[in-house]
Amino acid sequence: MLKSLMVAKAKEELEQEMVEKEEQKEKYLEEKAPPIQTHSMTLQELKTLCEELHAKIDVVDEERYDIEAKVLHNTREIKDLNIKVLDLRGKFKRPNLRRVRVSADAILRSLLGSKHKVSLDLRANLKSVKKEDTEKEKTVEVSDWRKNVEAMSGMEGRKKMFDAAKGPNQ
């Protein structure tokens, strides 16, 4: 939902920007190139006007050609420099990086500055378990199975085992 709203807002801003650019372009053209009144000119005046316009077009074309040549030269130079950088990277051996242990508090301090008051002591939030309770649960009577082999044989023995498994809760 948020992403679609952001896309819609960006689309509106882009359309508005396009309209503003078009308006600026029209203003610039009105200032720099006012409409020409050709209906009151003579044939000689029209010829001189055409010659002036062609001369201006030639100047602009020459400038455009020069700028394109400079751009091509700069792009070639950038490519060459990128290749040199890649070659230099390959020549030097990179050291192996060591893993550094950083606590959560240190990370927060580096991100938020020394102003952060929240402490991320995760061990304090853990439950504490008493060892005595776990040891009592583990110590179940272990008896010698060989003593009760005959007593547990048959259906009566299985009933005793079943009752013992259910426990004293009943």
In short:
This is Troponin I type 1b (skeletal, slow). Helices cover 67% and strands 0% of the residues.
Task: Describe the structure in your own words.
The protein has 170 residues and is mainly alpha-helical. The chain is built from six helices and no strands. The two termini are 56 Å apart. The model has no long low-confidence stretch (mean pLDDT 80).
Please describe the topology of this protein.
Layout: H1 2-32, H2 43-91, H3 104-112, H4 131-138, H5 149-152, H6 154-166
Calculate the terminal CA-CA distance, rounded to whole Å: 56 Å
Basic shape: elongated
Low-confidence stretches: none
Radius of gyration from CA coordinates:
44 Å
Order of helices and strands: HHHHHH
Biased composition (Basic and acidic residues): 15-33
Family: Belongs to the troponin I family.
GO molecular function: actin binding
Keywords: Acetylation, Actin-binding, Muscle protein
Entry keywords:
elongated, 6 helices, 67% helix, 170 residues, single chain, mainly alpha
